[in-house]
Amino acid sequence: MNSVGEGCTELKREYDQCFNRWFADKFLKGDRSGDPCTEMFKKYQTCVQVNGNYYSFRSMV
Question: Is the pTM for the entire model greater than 0.85?
Answer without folding.
Answer: no
